Amino acid sequence: MADGNGVSDDSSEEADDDEEEEKRIREGFIVDEDEEEDEEEDEERRRRRKRRKRRHRKRGKLPSSTSCLGHIYSWTEDEEEALEEDDLELLEENTGTSFRNRLTRLRRGREGGSPPVASSSRRKPVVESSEDDLDNDDDLPQVQDIQRIWDDERAGGGREDEEDMDDFIDYEDEEEGAAMDEQEREERRKERKKLERQRRRAMGSRPELAGIDANAWDEIHDVFGDGHEYDWALEGDDEGDYEERLKPEMKYQDVFEPSEIRARMLTEDDDLIRAQDIPERMQLATSSLSPNATLSLHQNLTEADIDDAATWVTSRLSSRKTRDFFSIDGPYQSYSQALVLAVSYALRFLFIHEFEVPYIWTHKRDYISYFNPQEMRTRIELISLSELWRIYALGQKYRSLLDRRNALIASYTRLNLEDEYFEQSIRPKIECVEMVADATEWLSMKYKVNKQDAFDFHFHDDEEPDRKRKTPSRISAYEVAKKSIVARLADGFGIRPHEVVQNFVANDRPNFVEDQELNPIVFAEQFTTPESVVSQTPEEVLRRARMILATELGKDPLLRQSMRDLFRTEAQISIQTTDRGVNKIDEHHPYFNFKYLHHKPITQMLDSAQFLHILAAEAELLVTVSIYLTNEAKAKFERQLNDAFTSDSYSDIARSWNEERSRVVQETLEYHLIPIGTKWAREWLREEVEDALAIHCGNKLKERIDVAPFITGDAQPGYTPSVLAISWGKGDPQKDAITLVLLDEMGRLREQVKLDNLVDRDYQDEFTDLLKRRRPDVIVVGGFTVATAKLSSRIKEIVNGKTPIVDAEGNIPGWGTEPTNEQVFDIPVIYLNDEVARIYQHSKRATEEFSTLSPIAKYCVGLARYAQNPLNEYAALGSDIVAISLEDEDQHLIPREKLLSALERALVDVTSKIGVDINRAVTDSYYQHLLPFVCGLGPRKAQVLARKIASIGGNLVNRDQFIKSGLLTTKIFLNAAGFLRISHDPESKPAKNRHADDDVQDPLDDTRIHPEDYELARKMATDALELDEEDVHDEHPSHVVSLIMQDSDNERKLNELNLDEFAVSMYEANEDRKRHTLNVIREELLKPFAEQRAPFPPMQPWDVLTMLSGETPRTLRMGLIISVLVLRIDKTSNSVMIRLDSGIEGIINMDYLSDTGNVLPQNAVKKSQAVQGVIVDVKLDLPADQFYVELSIRPSDLNPGDGLFRRVKRDEYWNTQQYERDLELQARKKRAETDRTRRVIKHPNFHNFNATHAENYLDKQQRGDVVIRPSSKGVDHLAVTWKVDDKLYQHIDVTEMNTGQGTVLFVDDKHQYADLDELIVNHVQATARKVEELMAHEKFKQGSEDELHLSLKNFVAANPAKSIYGFTLNRKRPGHFNLCFLANKNSTVQTWPVRVTPESYCLFEAAVAGVPELCDAFKVR
Q: Quick count: other Cβ atoms within 10 Å of Cβ 951?
């Protein structure tokens, strides 16, 4: 029953609510303004609020006691009672939570697709967030102003909406009236309800419900209810839907592995790269081809930095530039300032305007060339394309230097001091990152005492910028001396270190030495401290003072830089071969070239990869490399430094002080400057050689890709041929079929055929039928063996109509027989470089494109594509392009990232030269591989560009759409526009209306002319046609361009224009430099996107032979002895047909069978016999597809051997004396081994092993096992090797001595044995038992000594009041132990040796019998 207020006391409908739910609801709806609410609480609160609202909407029932807390704010119209003080006290008592003045309004949750986002503010005004707070029901009014919420009632909003807003307003009132007492709140509520009823009456009532009074409504309610009695049945589904909507939106980070996300370029960095209006390659610190490409976080240069940057870059551009432009007798010395200006323009374009190199080279070349309006005929190329890339690389280095230099200056500023020497001498000369590091170290040394934390440098490329540096735990000897009285003695040398450096770097001598009146020893006696614990002599104090000065001189940045400059020009390199290298590097080894390198100038190491090979040999422990100064250079430097330091006085005292100063200089050089210079020179030379080698590989790649597609004689340049690719695979007639693949002009696969052979008439007919139907422009042949040459020959016979006729039995009656009714095809047959096709056939890309084709068919597809567009094939390789062999012997020495960057630049250059048809790139996934190499783009930007174009229809009409359709941002458009061509439909005509140019073609869009120069092109066309502005006023702006392009006499008309005068007028008007641009415009108006690449090059015979066999001119040099197999004996010509291991066939003529010359072949060799032969000649006839080798097997040719031909050439700088000494030493060792008789002792443990063999033998044996072997010390010695532990063996030298009582085996003075068995039992096994006993002790730790040290430190760190010790095996002296102990946490780990003998353990001189006694001896000691 309901009471008079319509509130039911029945709680049965709420029986499913339990205390746990009550707690959740309470936690969800009573919000503490002082607490931080996380996302899960917000979500739970929204879910409970939705359930409560659904159950109690328009319901006048009082919630049951079990869930009353959840309905504190679920007031309806008829609820007029708020919580009393008693209720609040009861809640506080039961929950332990205070509710006074803590209740805020309920926050409505969003019902969007994404999860709720935590707000930065704990409370929001209602009006500000009302749209978000309202439940997003379909018919709910979405308005911002809460006071106008009723205005939408007439539009069909129901009472349910009103009730929602009632609740909402209730909360608002409660929030606003939080400070009211209960009476004021009740009056406010009544007033609100009164106003609400007035609004409803003013809005009118529904006509179908007119005349129903309140009593009638009560009766209707009692009979029919309010329509919500069965809402509980729907709650589960609705709640599920609501909870489903509240689930967080699934992201790809939740599905894919991070490596997969990186591979698909979907990381946050990738998104940032796509979004930023900066060319992609300029945003990366590495090549865009690299799968590990990372963002570059450098700050760009400013206009104020350009002048200094230009000077810095120009001086490092190249030695040739320095010689030609800046030497007094240089041919271009008068243009030096023009070169610096050109470099400044290049840097400005690169690092301020952010234009890539191809854009500058193509559209801004006038700014990097000599341009003088008064000398327009003078054309000097100040900067080449390769030098422009070099400027870009140097600019990046300067930018990094600038970042680090600014960080140094900021740290110096934080010191809050003024150092005149730093500001006036060091700071202006910081021109490399090494000097930044030197200056940092110098400041840290000088001001470390007062400013411990002033040098916390953080650079952009530091891996962990927030990680604090660990301060060193030890204080250097310099710091100790600097804090002592010895520092005053150092000041007594009469001149400070930085003044010495100023004297050294200056032409004059600005600082003079103050002479002392006392002798150095006498003067030093004043600074001895007799009362100190350790008394020091004057000599010792003087030595420490010299150390202070030498350290400060050695850390001076200017002096270090002078030493680096000296190493750059005067250093020499020598190689010392290790014992292992002496034996391993023989005359045929690749490293033999530098095995005895001696005094080679460092400047001559820059031209080859020799130094990288030296470093590789050093890594293999075969050689050690020494970099040092010449004696003359070192003496000169030392003399100059002495002159800057010494006094000019001639007294005996002055001479004594000068001697001390000279010792300081020697210490400075020996302990500081020379080591610094050596270390730097090694890294500098490696970097320089790697860079040069990478550029060389890039140039090699450019030679291969900067070629046009294969064209026949009558084809137009730029035409793409249809290609028939044929391969026989490995050429095995029993296993391999002949595979044919035909690609049409658009690169589409049209035919794929397999033929068993080309001998049978049926297969020949099928092949000729294919040629008749498809008429390919070229046939390309490739394969993996020399058998491919036979296939090529057969194809040429069929194409040329010279196929021999095969009779019914399959025999060929005569090769010269002319065929009948055979058609001749005018189709060239060529070999093709297959290095890309070999990679493609097994690639994932091939599987995706042609999943049904066999690997050989995919190989043929790669061949055909290479003939159609070599650039496209290389571009499609991606990061796999490093697998291409460009420099056989040296390429593997280049770091992968450097090689990728160099190869990418070659791809970008050539792609920019030919342009990319953007519409074709969108529709053709294979051609799209070129898009990332367009200037300004990259893999990420090209990907999003293609998707955007596809989303608007997949076809662009003109370049304006790049901007108007939002396809490219401004800078990317400027970079890329001139290289993205839009091919025109020849049937389409340009619009006549000048203003109808939005969706019409522009002929200039299919040229290399940049949109910023379109007006120039139109002006040139207008002038060439001698038209006026009025003549073309109503036409499309590029209508004149179409006219001049179609004009039959356009070349004469354009050549008559005076472009020099036009360029001068433009420069005088706007200072625009456009002379080269005008030439480009003229060429493009004549031949848009004309082919600028070299013709497709035919393969050379040696290249074909290498491709088919792997043989090179080096492996088939005349004079080499090789092994061959006899195939058959030709009795007609008395010759022998042979075959090499590589498949190449050859011949041995009768004259080369024997020295006598009259031996028949069948008497000299037999069929299938393997013989050794000397290469006499290599015959290569590519048109006839014949490759064979002529050999000799005459004894007179074989006996001398081929060592002379196989020997690696020595370097010019060869240490002949050392080489001969080592040869003599090796010969002596060899003779000794030959002369030495092998001992044989009848004992089961004896083996004729050396030490290595013995260790390998014992590797799989048990600990304690023994090998007795001969000794290298002579016949009266034996060596006993026993296994101490895994990979640890003790070698015992045993001397055999004959005495009167017989042979005695001496181990040492205390251990002598009568025979081997006694030695094994009483010495080796006894020692092994002692070792086992100690290893079984609890204080023994398995592993290395460092691991024991770490264990001791960890124990003391956990137990500071205790000390700890332990034992471990001595790896340097097998069979013995190390006792390591740590006294306390502030001490260092001490190590004592423990020697093991058969009867005892020896700790120093103390010998003990057992392990407990050993521990006691240690503790007592």
A: 10
Q: Where are the beta strands (DSSP E) in 925-1066?
A: 980-981
Which stretch of 242-246, 375-379, 942-946, 1110-1114 has the lowest confidence by average pLDDT? 242-246
- C-beta of residue 1371 within 8 angstroms of C-beta of residue 1397: no
**Structure tokens given for 912:** 């920019």
Q: How confident is the model at residue 1137 (pLDDT cuts 50, 70, 90)?
A: very high
Confidence of residue 182 (pLDDT cuts 50, 70, 90): low
Say if strands 980-981 and 1121-1130 run parallel, antiparallel, or are unpaired. unpaired
User: On the CB side of 827, how many CA atoms lie within 13 Å of its CA?
Assistant: 28
Tell me how far apart the alpha carbons of residues 1024 and 1079 are, in angstroms, rounded to a whole number.
14
DSSP state at residue 267: S
The residue to which tokens 């035409």 are assigned: 719
- What is the reported pLDDT for 397? 92
Amino acid at 1074: K
Q: What is the largest CA-CA distance in the chain?
A: 146
Contact 177, 183 (CB under 8 A): no
CA–CA separation, 718 and 869 (whole Å) = 10
**Beta carbons of 321 and 369 less than 8 angstroms apart:** no
Beta strand pairing call for 738-743 and 749-755: antiparallel
- Contact present, 978 and 355 (Cβ < 8 Å): no
Among 1329, 1331, 1240, residue whose Cα is nearest residue 1278:
1240
Q: Distance from CA of residue 892 to its chain's centroid?
A: 16
Quick one: average pLDDT of 615-635?
93
- Name the DSSP class of 1172: E
Q: Which of 1183, 1175, 1098 is nearest to 1144 (CA)?
A: 1175
Residue 618 burial (CB < 10 Å; 0-12/13-18/19+)?
middle
Kindly state the helix (H) or strand (E) to which residue 388 belongs, with its residue range: helix 385-414
Residue 93: per-residue pLDDT: 58
| Short-list 580, 444, 560, 421, CA closest to 502 | 421
Q: For helices 557-570 and 538-554, give the axis angle rounded to 10 degrees.
A: 70
Looking at residue 66, what is its pLDDT? 39
* Alpha-carbon gap, residue 1281 to 1285, rounded angstroms: 12
Alpha helix stretches (DSSP H) within 204-351: 214-224, 231-246, 258-263, 268-275, 280-283, 306-315, 319-326, 336-351
1289/1283 Cα distance (integer angstroms): 5
Joined together, the tokens standing for residue 1053 give: 């008309």
Q: 91-116 burial string, b = 16+ CB within 10 Å, else e?
A: beeeeeeebeeebbbbbbbbeeeeeb
Task: Provide DSSP, 1020-1032.
Answer: HHHHHTT--GGGG
Helices (H) and strands (E) in the chain, counts: 55, 25
Instruction: Name residues whose C-beta falls within 8 Å of residue 692's C-beta, 6 or more positions apart in sequence.
Output: 606, 607
Q: Tens digit of pLDDT for each residue in 1138-1149? A: 999 988 999 998
**Which residue type is seen at 538?**
P
Neighbours of 762 (CB within 10 A): 10
Which residues, including other chains, have CB under 8 Å from residue 1138's CB and lie 6 or more apart?
A: 1124, 1125, 1126, 1127, 1145, 1146, 1147, 1148, 1171, 1173, 1191
The amino acid at residue 1359 is N
Distance CA 602, CA 685 (A): 8
Strands of 1302-1308's sheet in order across: 1266-1270, 1277-1285, 1288-1299, 1302-1308, 1311-1313
pLDDT number for residue 637: 93
Q: What is the helix, strand, coil percentage profile of the chain, to 5?
A: 50, 10, 40
Which residues, 6+ apart, have CB-to-CB distance to 1186 below 8 Å?
789, 1179, 1180
User: Pick from 143, 142, 162: which is nearest to 153 by CA?
Assistant: 162
Structure token pair of residue 100: 């006074």
Q: Other C-beta atoms within 10 Å of 1207: how many?
A: 12
The SS3 call for residue 631 is helix
